[in-house]
Amino acid sequence: MTKTPEQRSRTMRAVKSVDTSPEMAVRSMAHRMGLRFRLYRKDLPGKPDLVFPRLHKVIFVHGCFWHGHDCLRARRPKTNVEYWSRKIARNHSRDVVNSAKLMKLGWMAGVIWECELKKPEIVRKRLARFLR
Ligand SMILES: [Zn+2]
Questions:
Q1: How many Å lie between the centroid of ligand 1 and the Cα of residue 30?
Q2: I want to staple 98 with a disulfide (CB 3.0 to 4.6 A). Which of 45, 76, 77, 126 is the partner?
Q3: Would you say 108 and 56 are in contact if contact means Cβ atoms under 8 Å apart?
Q4: What's the CA gap between 104 and 44, in Å, rounded?
Q5: Which residues are placed with Cβ below 5 angstroms of ligand 1, an ion?
């Protein structure tokens, strides 16, 4: 059966949202470590990916491209440079504002970058240290 473009893009979206996302990787890692968290609380600035209510700590899992991580500095798109850098800069400053807001509300925010997940052992250590 052939699919209409609409059906196809729905399928693509569904595929994208399964277990392979960096957010899911961190969540299942935290889960295996026996850390108890909530997925997110809509009332918190920036909608953190993992929320640890008792500790008053939250974790954001950031995609390196969209959030302007240094690891990709040399590999930014060569076309539409202005468009991309403006978009990425906007995301980046939103991140800064959100963690400042969280801090004001008494929450401590940590960030796990997508690229760090290539070394799960290091991420596990950082999680353990952050949540101590
Ligand atoms: Zn990165």
A1: 20
A2: 45
A3: yes
A4: 11
A5: 64, 69, 71, 113, 115
CA 95 – ligand 1 centroid, Å: 15
**What pLDDT is attached to residue 75?**
67
Q: Are strands 108-113 and 57-62 parallel, antiparallel or unpaired?
A: parallel
**What are the pLDDT digits (tens) for 103-114?**
999 999 999 999
Global pTM reads 0.78
Reading the block at residue 96, the tokens are: 């800064």
Ligand 1 mean position to 57 CA, how many Å? 22
Amino acid found at 129: R
Counting residues of the chain whose pLDDT is more than 90, the rounded percentage is: 55
Could you give phi then psi for residue 76, rounded to 5 degrees?
-65, 155
Assigned token pair, 10: 């729905």
Sign of CA dihedral 84, 113, 50, 29: positive
